[in-house]
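Ligand-bound model needed. uridine-diphosphate-N-acetylglucosamine.
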Amino acid sequence: MRVLHVIGARPNLMKAAPVFRALAKQPRAQQSLVHTGQHYDANMSGAFFPQLGIPEPDVNLRVGSGSHARQTAEIMTRFEPVVRQWKPDIVLVYGDVNSTLAASLVCAKLLIPVGHVEAGLRSFDRAMPEEINRLLTDQIAHLLFTPSEDGDANLLREGIVPAKIYRVGNVMIDSLVDLLPKAIACKLDSLPERYALITLHRASNVDDLQTLKRILGALVEINTQLSVLFPVHPRTRQRIAEWGLKTGELCLLEPIPYIEFLALQRRAMVIITDSGGVQEESTYLGVPCLTLRENTERPITVSLGTNTLVGQDSKKLSSELSNILAGKVKKGVVPPLWDGHAGERIAEILCRCFG
Ligand code: UD1
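Prediction:
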């Protein structure tokens, strides 16, 4: 069985690693990792491979940044010859980034089966580029590996036949479970006793001047009551610089490697984010999470977990934060099948189908 994994952006790495490692234990599986180069800074990509226990990619397509059309087209153009040459039995794509959709389209036209890991999630907000990537990838994938029941329901509603859907659990949580002991042991120097951890990169929050200005203003205000630690995504850093926005006394950090970031998450008093993965990780860790989005494709983090959607409403953010500071925190449970074994379940299914 020849399995080709496509990764491109930071969150893909934590999702692909457990599947890659589980397949490495299967004697009949041959694997190759192709990196599209959508993310290329060392601290957005390269630094993660040794921590996650996966090899450097066999191929890097080096597409880099660009408009959605250019990035998607460039990935497709450069990926097609790799697929033709390597002749995989199945191509695995992860999550909802441009690399996910671009690789899936190439395979659909070459009649190569695609397995979509983290299928079925929906925000029902088609203004999000990721929602378009999710919807289209799921329509052309052959095997759809869902993290939770809502994923199955969404796919069935969209006319996907039940035989293609496999509820396997959450692969991103596999990486967390695997590396949590290292995160617990991780020494972080000069951390404040209590702090809020921030991540912010969604186009809807950072590509509009007034919105970003308002969010930064709210964070500066929070920083007067509770230290704010803010590892800044390159996209956000670029906008802050371009518009000369004020960040006051905020502690702006470079993007942080995976284990250290997990360590920061588990010790945080609250996490404020617009990331998908961080909503899940905070639910698993039982840390309150305030999400700066109007919707989420991961509703289970709200219904079962510690997540609360605050949108772009500074008043709601401030009142939810006051509750947390007063000790009134949302208690959550870990959703079913978020147990560290999703990658193994995917490997077993692939062996049954292609082995
Ligand atoms: C992408 C995904 C998003 C995911 C996020 C995780 C899409 C549509 N978006 O968003 O779903 O949550 O990755 O980080 O696929 N840049 C660098 N160095 C890098 C990468 C990016 O400087 O290594 C800068 C560039 O200026 C680039 C910008 O960040 O133009 C945006 O990068 P891009 O890959 O287009 O989208 P992300 O915002 O990272």
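DSSP finds 15 helices and 13 strands in the chain.
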